[in-house]
């Protein structure tokens, strides 16, 4: 085998470059006379940055022995021990007429590679200077970084033949820093990254990063990257070096075995147990050391690792797409994130950043990247997080900036909104619904050259932490599962074998109340799961768990397709399922032929009314919050909402648009007679509005020309809700910390409580600390919620009973509130049970 492979435009620290060589169909070694032959490929150990793989080939001595022994040869005599110690090998069998497809991987993060590259780059600079002074230097020396030789050895039972593969690396460069701004919207289900070149902030100059392929690309339009990660192999133990692990993200992650798949990396990273163990199945050897006989085993990670790896790959894709490194980064976060959750999000971004730069994840390095005040020190680590902006505010920034930046936009804005524009931004994403009430006012500053200042201020932030597009898909999946179970319930042999004794139930009628449907699903949940098994223990990886995990993924895919087609309220939409693993399982378990089972599944139908009733309550709750915000912050002050914008992919679901238009206390939302439409939804920017707005916001912090934009850049440093204690005697809430206060200005609060006459069972949760009580509870109220509409923020558990008085203190290092009683005992945080759904993807909770 004599081939020539060329890697071009190589930049250090941009991950792994992969080149697949497609050999012609007529290829075969000249000496081969048999229909099958063996092939050995070897290269020096010193080239640890290079690897070669061919499907079906085995690495190491095991592959050598297998190939040589088949043809009656002793590999030890053919390959001396000193050669075996100095070279890497992959070996396998090929069939004449079936050309091989060798895959060559160059790891630009390898330390030896980077050291050689740095020396070469330094030498090029010296030779370039010499050439400029008239010294004759061959042009190829200024281009070719390295030429590598890989040896091949083809053999059959009659003869053998040596060959060469020439690998040329040209040229190698140090990536420059990107001259501009980068923003990342790390989403629950989808993630976007945008870049804005330096200079005048303009939407026309903004580009998107396509991170969904083997290499990154910059495009004017592309799909967001699914927030999915698949850990394929870990070299022993996961370290801070990107070369210690093989992983894929986005759509590529779907193609790898699902036992290494992690969905909802952002949820895991935001949870209080982000340092707890997470188990995936993966290989414990990297390519090319592993062989087809290698098995996957349990690999322990931490809950934060998937987010770090996902973001590292996103940054690598940016480097590949631009041949530069990001320096100034804006990060967005859900409007309802607490200080602790935001702190953890920043840290996983920093760890992903450091992993991309092959830097240790020390607390000092992390703090340098996270702390935007340490600009110079951050530059030494490749950059810093220049801005953290909540998602609703970022999206609002995008839409307002776009309205005013068009030709004549400022004049039109000043004419239509002489007292300023009030915007309600409703962002329904994958896992949360974020709400922001934003005002924009245009002011003139006369002097040496008139400067217009657009002042954007956030009047209030609110939202629903546990409602988004995933919740709609979740309800659809539950309904499909129930209807499918009922459809196959008629098989008496199957129900008897599974121990199902109750008669086949009838699905609730279309006009049934949501509560009745919920009661029905819970009543028959065990029987439904026996027929269509999708429940599992998320902390185990046994064969049943792996099987049911796969079933949930398939059911989820069916449900997403149904959701996209639910338009008219009463028009039924059929399930469209391929013949996948869930279909095959159900066919085998029931004894029904696969095609018949597929016909049964595709005969199941849902209409929008069935789904709407299951999700209507949280949708209407979010709109009530909007109306309360409007009344409290605008109407009571004699102001009104001028513009409502729906954003986020889940806003495509028709119920959300209809409910907003019908229930929002905003006049003329659908009027065509107004000069400006009051309701807007840009389908091209449902997901990208957040990242684009964040990039624009970051740019305006540094760019000062004809139009300056000022906004609340420190919004993330203010408490977005009020925190209260509930007096168990009076039943009233006492506000401890008010919405909008700066975290660094919060002072400790002390509360006293009095025992009630009724005895309280130890460990229960009656409302707040009482005599004999071991729990203390803090309550939270978001702007837009009614006066008594508090939900549990956190429960604090004390080993012994709580002793009054209690002191509540905000600790910046933890990013959370600490509760101490009069004896100095500190309560350990136990979040509400409902928070479990916030920090684990519904697909991987195991309770579908």
Task: Please render the helix and strand layout as text.
Elements: E1 3-11, E2 16-20, E3 36-44, E4 50-53, E5 58-59, H1 60-70, H2 75-78, H3 81-86, E6 87-95, E7 103-107, H4 111-132, E8 146-155, E9 160-173, E10 176-177, E11 180-185, E12 190-197, E13 207-210, E14 217-219, E15 225-226, E16 228-234, E17 245-249, E18 261-263, H5 265-270, E19 277-282, E20 297-302, H6 305-322, E21 324-325, E22 328-333, H7 339-356, H8 363-370, H9 375-380, E23 384-390, H10 391-405, H11 409-416, E24 421-428, E25 433-445, E26 451-464, H12 469-487, H13 492-497, H14 514-523, H15 525-531, H16 543-565, E27 573-574, H17 581-590, H18 594-602, E28 605-606, H19 608-633, E29 643-647, H20 654-663, E30 679-680, H21 688-700, E31 707-710, E32 722-726, E33 733-737, E34 749-751, E35 775-781, E36 791-797, E37 806-811, E38 816-820, E39 828-830, H22 836-839, H23 842-845
Parallel strand pairs: 1-9, 10-21, 11-22, 22-23, 24-29, 26-31, 29-30
Antiparallel strand pairs: 2-7, 3-6, 3-8, 4-7, 5-6, 8-9, 11-12, 12-13, 12-15, 13-14, 16-17, 16-18, 19-20, 24-25, 25-26, 27-28, 32-33, 32-35, 34-37, 35-36, 36-39, 37-38
Assembly form of the protein: single chain
Distance between the termini: 53 Å
- List segments where confidence is low: pLDDT < 50 over at least 5 consecutive residues: 755-771
Number of helices: 23
> What class, by secondary structure content?
alpha+beta
Task: Please give the radius of gyration in angstroms.
Answer: 31 Å
**Which term fits the overall shape?**
globular
The proportion of residues forming helix, as a percent range, comes to: 25-40%
Q: What profile does the largest beta sheet have?
A: 7 strands, mixed
**How many β-strand stretches?**
39
Q: How much of the sequence is in beta strands? A: 25-35%
């Amino acid at each position: 085998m004599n081939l020539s492979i060329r890697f071009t435009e190589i930049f250090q620290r941009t991950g792994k470059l992969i080149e697949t060589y497609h050999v012609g169909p007529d290829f075969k070694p000249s000496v081969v006379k048999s229909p099958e032959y063996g092939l050995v490929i070897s290269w020096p150990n010193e080239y640890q940055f290079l690897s070669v793989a061919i499907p079906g080939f085995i690495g190491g001595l095991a592959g050598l022995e297998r190939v040589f022994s088949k043809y009656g040869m002793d590999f030890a005599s053919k390959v001396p021990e000193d050669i075996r110690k100095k070279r890497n090998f992959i070996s396998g069998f090929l069939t004449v007429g079936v050309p091989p497809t060798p895959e060559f991987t160059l790891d630009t993060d390898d330390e030896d590679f980077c050291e050689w590259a740095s020396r070469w780059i330094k030498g090029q600079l010296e030779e370039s200077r010499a050439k400029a002074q008239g010294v004759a230097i061959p042009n190829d020396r200024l281009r070719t970084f390295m030429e590598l030789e890989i040896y091949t050895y083809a053999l059959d039972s009659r003869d053998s033949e040596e060959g060469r593969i020439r690998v040329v690396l040209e040229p190698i460069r140090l990536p420059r820093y990107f001259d501009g701004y980068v923003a990342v919207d790390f989403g629950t289900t989808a993630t976007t990254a945008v870049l804005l070149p330096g200079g005048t902030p303009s939407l026309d100059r903004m580009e998107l990063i396509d991170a969904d392929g083997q290499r990154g690309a910059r495009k004017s339009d592309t799909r967001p990257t699914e927030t999915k990660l698949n850990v394929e192999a870990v070299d022993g133990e996961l370290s801070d070096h990107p070369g210690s692990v093989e992983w894929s993200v986005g759509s590529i992650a779907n193609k790898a075995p699902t036992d290494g798949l992690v969905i909802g990396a952002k949820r895991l990273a935001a949870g209080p147990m982000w340092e707890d163990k997470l188990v995936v199945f993966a290989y414990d050897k990297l390519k090319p050391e592993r062989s087809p006989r290698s098995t996957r085993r349990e690999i322990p990670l931490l809950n934060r690792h998937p987010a770090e790896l996902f973001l590292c790959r996103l940054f690598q894709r940016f480097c590949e797409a631009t041949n530069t490194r990001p320096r100034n980064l804006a990060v967005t976060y859900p409007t309802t994130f607490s200080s602790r959750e935001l702190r953890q999000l920043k840290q996983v971004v920093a760890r992903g950043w450091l992993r991309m730069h092959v830097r240790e994840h020390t607390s000092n390095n992390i703090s340098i990247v996270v702390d935007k005040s340490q600009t110079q020190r951050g530059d030494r680590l490749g950059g810093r997080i220049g801005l953290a902006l909540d998602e609703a505010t970022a999206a609002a920034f995008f839409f307002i900036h776009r309205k005013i930046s068009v030709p004549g936009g400022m004049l039109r804005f000043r004419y239509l909104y002489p007292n300023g524009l009030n915007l309600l931004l409703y962002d329904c994403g994958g896992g949360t619904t974020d709400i922001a009430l934003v005002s924009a006012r245009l002011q003139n500053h006369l002097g040496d050259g008139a400067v217009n200042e657009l002042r954007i201020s956030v009047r209030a932030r609110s939202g629903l932490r546990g409602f988004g597009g995933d919740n709609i898909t979740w309800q659809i999946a539950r309904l499909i599962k129930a209807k499918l179970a009922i459809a196959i319930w008629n098989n008496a042999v199957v129900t008897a074998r599974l121990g199902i004794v109750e008669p086949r139930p009838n699905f609730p009628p279309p006009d049934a109340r949501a509560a009745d449907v919920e009661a029905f699903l819970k009543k028959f949940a065990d029987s439904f799961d026996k027929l269509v098994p999708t429940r599992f223990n998320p902390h185990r990886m046994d064969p049943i768990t792996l099987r049911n995990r796969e079933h949930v993924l398939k059911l989820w895919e069916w449900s997403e397709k149904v959701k996209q087609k639910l338009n008219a309220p009463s028009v039924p939409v059929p399930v469209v399922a391929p013949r996948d693993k869930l279909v095959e399982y159900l066919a085998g378990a029931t004894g029904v032929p696969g095609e018949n089972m597929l016909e049964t599944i595709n005969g199941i139908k849902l209409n929008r009314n069935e789904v709407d009733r299951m999700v209507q309550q949280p949708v209407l709750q979010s709109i009530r919050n909007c109306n309360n915000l409007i009344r409290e912050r605008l109407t009571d002050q004699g102001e009104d909402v001028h513009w409502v914008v729906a954003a986020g992919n889940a806003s495509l679901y028709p119920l959300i648009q209809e409910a907003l238009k019908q229930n929002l206390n905003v006049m003329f939302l659908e009027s065509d007679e107004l000069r400006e439409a009051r309701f807007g939804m840009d389908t091209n920017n449902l997901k990208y509005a957040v990242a684009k707005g964040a990039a624009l916001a970051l740019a305006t912090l540094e760019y000062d020309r004809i139009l300056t934009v000022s906004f609340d850049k420190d919004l993330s440093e203010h408490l977005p809700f009020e925190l209260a204690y509930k007096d168990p005697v009076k039943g009233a809430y006492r506000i401890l910390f008010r919405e909008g206060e700066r975290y660094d200005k919060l002072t400790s609060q002390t509360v006293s409580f009095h025992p009630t006459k009724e005895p309280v069972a130890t460990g229960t949760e009656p409302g707040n600390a009482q005599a004999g009580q071991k729990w203390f509870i803090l309550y939270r109220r978001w702007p837009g919620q009614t006066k008594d509409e508090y939900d549990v923020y956190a429960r604090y558990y004390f080993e012994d009973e709580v002793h009054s008085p209690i002191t509540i203190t905000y600790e910046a290092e933890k990013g959370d509130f600490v509760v101490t009683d009069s004896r100095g005992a500190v309560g350990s945080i136990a979040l509400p049970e409902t928070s479990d759904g916030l920090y684990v993807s519904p697909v991987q909770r195991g309770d579908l």
